[in-house]
Design brief:
240 residues, alpha/beta, nine-stranded mixed β-sheet, seven-stranded parallel β-sheet, 2 helices, globular
Amino acid sequence: MLRSRNTFSSLTSRVLHTGWRWVQRAGAVTAERPGRLRFRRIGTGTRLAFPQGTVFGEPWIELGDHCIIGEQVTLTAGMMPDLDLGPEPVLTLGDGVVLGRGSHVIADTTVTIGADTYCGPYVYITSTNHSYDDPQEPVGKQWPRMEKVVIGPGCWLGTGAVILPGARLGRNVVVAAGAVVRGEVPDHAVVAGAPARIVRSWDPEKGWQPPLRTPAPVPIPEGVTPEQLLALADLEPETS
């Protein structure tokens, strides 16, 4: 009897996992299979994983080529659905942008994310913030403030990073996990903390300042084949 129950449980588990994988594939959004979502543009090779998070204002959202949008990612243009936001795009993702699971991009006004920017899970990017002008009025009832957000190409935003209204990140900027960014960040900077501050930057003459604590990785020599790399990985480390 116990063996029968274990066999049935194992079979049920396999069926459920197989079914869920089918649902994930069928529910993913691509240019060829947009489902109910009618984006202003969805590029070649771009894929929104299933299940999607909250998505509205699609006619004002442009997604570049080969973007990867993880599960439960929220993408919104405008403060609420069914608004006319004018002739121009409001939320733009460049080619090759990656948004990790559970991330939010809230574009009540223009938000632009440059090509090849990678975001870890649960990153929050918003063009809108609460105001607190009247100390007697509940904060949630006070009219919010909106400012454009620009994230340059080639950036990396760590898990749980928050990008606030008015932020302008340059090219190849790293935002540490959990950092809260506002204002301008120059090219080739690393920022951390809440509020975020620059903790490392690139100087054309001196290199990284302060210097990196770990040596740069050694590039793979030309002519090395994948098979040779696999063989190296199988070698036992030397022991003294």
